[in-house]
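I can't quite decide. Please look over this sequence plus structure tokens:

:::
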Amino acid sequence: MALYTYKTSNPAFSRDVWKGYASTSNKMTINGIIVKSFFCLILVASSTWLTWQLIGQGYNTNLFIYGGLTGTVFFSLITAFIHRLARVLVPLYSLALGFFLGGITIYAESKFKGMPMQAIGVTITTFFVMLFLYKSKIVKVAERFRSVLIIAITIISIIYVISWTLHFFNIDTPFTILDSSSYLALGFNIIAAGVVAFTLMLDFDFIERKKNHVPRYMEWVATWGLLVTLIWVYVEALRIVKRIVIS
């Protein structure tokens, strides 16, 4: 399979974002991505902690949730098109992400004490389990594996969009059951979390294929891609823990 026709479900690792760099010197490395990923996670943790402090002082939770969400979308869109600015945009994305996560974490903690920490534990465990499965070749990222996973992610995304839209307009259909505390909703969230977890392996495989083929500043773009998947894993973990608590 050609290097630049590789398929992935993560928009940060799409063909259009990564094409046209084969002849560039000063290449992307795995170590560079690891360092940048840890740096960005520190930024996420720092702005999350700051959010907790500010909300504790009486600031509106929704300000951080919607403000952070707007920031992550804005910086993501620019990063996708202007890669050379990624070294600035991805740290800003990380800070905005921390504000968003801080807001939803405080909200979740106020409703279900201890739930966010459980979700964080699940997210960290999932990351290292997927990395182990990938590096040990216990699960091989073959073409069929990629195709099935991409189709599953697409279906899950469509179901979520339909469910959220119907819920917004208070329309009661089988899709709105996914917003309830039913066992069907719990089952769907477990399946979705499993599929999203395995997309981490697609990210690992994509990075492995692209190393030494794209310029070093694309390490920031790769870091952004990993953060996108990790946050989705965290959100799904929150959903599962919530379903289990209220079931």
About this structure: The CA atoms of residues 134 and 140 lie 7 Å apart. The chain has one domain: 3-7+25-246.
